[in-house]
Batch of 2 targets.
Target 1
Amino acid sequence: MLTFVGLGLYSAKDITVRGFEAVKSADIVYFEEYTSSLGGCDRLTLEEVFGRKIYPLSREEIENEPEKILLHATSYNVLLLTGGDPMIATTHVDLRLRAYDRGIRTNIIHAPSIFTVVPGITGLSSYKFGKTATISFPYRDKAESISDLPYDTIKQNRSHGLHTLLLLDITHERQMTIKDALEILETLETRHGEGLMKDLIFVGIARAGSEDMVVKAGGMKTLMEFDFGTPLHVLVAVGDLHFMEEEALCKFAGLERDL
Amino acid sequence: MLTFVGLGLYSAKDITVRGFEAVKSADIVYFEEYTSSLGGCDRLTLEEVFGRKIYPLSREEIENEPEKILLHATSYNVLLLTGGDPMIATTHVDLRLRAYDRGIRTNIIHAPSIFTVVPGITGLSSYKFGKTATISFPYRDKAESISDLPYDTIKQNRSHGLHTLLLLDITHERQMTIKDALEILETLETRHGEGLMKDLIFVGIARAGSEDMVVKAGGMKTLMEFDFGTPLHVLVAVGDLHFMEEEALCKFAGLERDL
């Protein structure tokens, strides 16, 4: 049996009680920390809090050598821990499909995910988010290699009055900041010249779910000058605002606007 | 201080460890079970599992008499439990804003939500969901009172290749089933005559997150004839399928289709 367990967003306490019990009773516990980074703790902290050995797994080990995990899961009760909700990453969906093909039972124990937490923190309605986009670091830092996808997604969602959740790239070397992301969007604005970003309100969220979370709403320029502190960062491009959403942005995210 | 704590989707064990600790240390614990129903347990079960008194609150008590809760929260550490993630319901955003106006500190402890769990269960990519819609019971059961909103939302999302999460109405008397929802969509199809539902794949999910969860994908007719068992039910209208999403629907949701 292979059980996928989400750790939620920040600390070892963001796992559900059901997930915690599963960790205690599993034969083998793996931790895959590359598709989604846990903000406030690492594998050793998890070992200490959960009181058991936890084996690290790289994304490559899951993608290129899944047989090792699957072989274990045919005879043992194997558990795979991951930040956020365990089924957001395609890598894990793929592993679940491979397990199915080998007749291995799978189970999912869900956890809070950035997809749900961001509307909650900002007060923006979950019903009014359109398609999500990821902002990636440009290949070899070249402006011409920047993908149009985030720009096109914001434009499409905005034309329907919808908000866009913008996830920021995490690589082995670097975690993208809100400033990095806004600079990339600025480059895309220059490329397109459509003025899409001109009156756009953004909400930046740093260290979602932690004690020192920071949430700040404003135009591109305001957020570029704002000090969000260390990653993880995430960004929302705001669509049409219901009055209660606007009130929430003013009160919980310091939006300065005449109501 | 007023802390909003999500209970997740099904049992008393779907709360996070952080949430569980907050319940134990709070002065007063309320449970609001009307904006989002917890599938597998009620207030008395929660009292037993959490080992403390939990006071019921109706949606009306929060919306019409928030002062009682806020008065308590000025002097005590008050906690409000709710199914799913605590900040999906506008009612709770409104209460948080009122607390802010009175200078009461608020805190959110997130939990797994249907918005995240549905992509995970179905294998449909979180990135490819468009706007969400709710299917409501028609006023006095009259077909002409059925809102066009779910139809228009599916149509708009589908035109961009996106999936639509369809939440089903819960009233004091009745919980909408997948069959009820599909009948409403069929009535809308007759009204519009655009053939939108003709080739549409739906995924029905019953009792998400429980041991006896049922997930079934297929056309409208297939799902109408399928026995999903008791609520809670939820529905997805599928957009364009990536091959891995299609594989997941075939393997985990019994979609019959030539690949």
Target 2
Amino acid sequence: MSRVTCDLTVSLDGYVAGPNQSLDEPLGERGESLHRWQFEQREASAAEIAGILEAGAYIMGRNMFAGPGPGPWDQGWRGWWGEEPPYHAPVFVLTHHQREPLAMEGGTTFHFVTDGIESALAQAREAAGDRDVAIAGGAQTARQYLSAGLMDELRLHISPEILGGGERLLDGVGDVTLEPIEARGTGLVTHVRYRVQR
Amino acid sequence: MSRVTCDLTVSLDGYVAGPNQSLDEPLGERGESLHRWQFEQREASAAEIAGILEAGAYIMGRNMFAGPGPGPWDQGWRGWWGEEPPYHAPVFVLTHHQREPLAMEGGTTFHFVTDGIESALAQAREAAGDRDVAIAGGAQTARQYLSAGLMDELRLHISPEILGGGERLLDGVGDVTLEPIEARGTGLVTHVRYRVQR
């Protein structure tokens, strides 16, 4: 069976986003700095970037699709990624608001799932076939799958930035046992893969 | 000039010790589990363990020497490490209580410094000669040197444990810029060396 993976970039003090997230600054203050490794040194982290993009289906939380707050959800919002999102695969968005599937260019179709994380996973597995299902984020969605024992591999990309505030990835995640299976670094990030033990 | 280094083991959620530190449990609940890499797989992390023990002088906080609370400080306390502590070098203990130097077996002498972190560093540099000065801990002492711009290299040993509470290393450390210079992992820990930029 395909695996359930999750790639997340965190600050050295454990934040996935800085303080004061907003529509203008969806990653919060200084949150963009966490992702320098994906933009400034793509070659140095080519394998990890490829790993993020190779899943057969993705699952994301409502905030990752539409941002915090009431926002533009009911106004024909088509995501943050322009007309050709980078997923090139079905993306299952967890939400309480029903909506018809939204087909974008390049193979990405957003499906809106209103009956919970297990249903989203079943649908994503079906869509992914033999390929992996990736939990795309945000942190709250990742925590839900991790806490529920529904994730096989957590891949942390640990930035050297110290944000000092914001949304922490692992707070309240509960009793989870992780085993490091691979670690390597560049001048901008430390990549660590963890197997989630059941 | 010799460098100022600091080795610290942290949980994946950023804690150096679990909740409810006490004389019986100086690392707090489940805090001992962070250090499994130093006891269960010494060979796999031999270089890092050697790195911890090669300094020419050490600096530690009062709590690391004597534990939290009023404790046994004035009762002839000789540290946690038995008659032959593992430092084999001068150790400068930051405290508000004057006390005569305490010579132990194997070359460790505890010196008690009452006039602050810069004085302790000057004395440790003098004692270390060409060798490095290591900030031995605890977290509060490490933060003080880091925030004051007096540390050259921070070496984090990131355990896969999630403690969910306790004392966090980097909370309140302020505006510090770190550059990862080496990362590698074992099945129990991820070792990352950071250069502290001035």
